[in-house]
Amino acid sequence: MIIWRCARMVLTTSVYIAAVFVAWESVIWLFDVKSFLVPSPRAVFRSYADLPSYYLRHAGVTLAEASLGVLIGFTAGF
User: Fold this and answer.
1) CA 6 to centroid of chain Cα atoms
2) Angle, to 10 degrees, between the axis of helix 41-50 and the axis of helix 2-30?
3) How many CB atoms lie within 10 A of CB 33?
4) Which of 39, 57, 60, 62 could pair covalently with 43 via S-S, beta carbons 3.0-4.6 A apart?
5) 31-35 contacts at long range (C-beta below 8 A, 24 or more positions apart)
């Protein structure tokens, strides 16, 4: 019973995520939105695939800054 509930939740979430990407791509295509305003999902995924080290490096910086902010917030709160 629990396995079916988990499987249904994963399937539902996957369908919603796919629907968001399809809607995003459709809006970009239908309204001819310029890529410097909002890139298409394909352009975003292509960029991730072409420059993974760039995104990982900056994700590390963001994680460090967020952690430092939480630490400062906890320290100031107590």
Assistant:
1) 22
2) 110
3) 14
4) 39
5) none
Write out the two tokens for 38: 């909002």
How far is 5 from 11, CA to CA, in rounded Å? Answer: 10
Q: What is the pLDDT of residue 1?
A: 78
List per-residue pLDDT tens for the chain, 78 residues long. Answer: 789 999 999 999 999 999 999 999 999 999 999 999 999 999 999 999 999 999 999 999 999 999 999 999 999 987
Pair of tokens at residue 69? 């902010």
- Which residue is listed with tokens 């001819």? 32
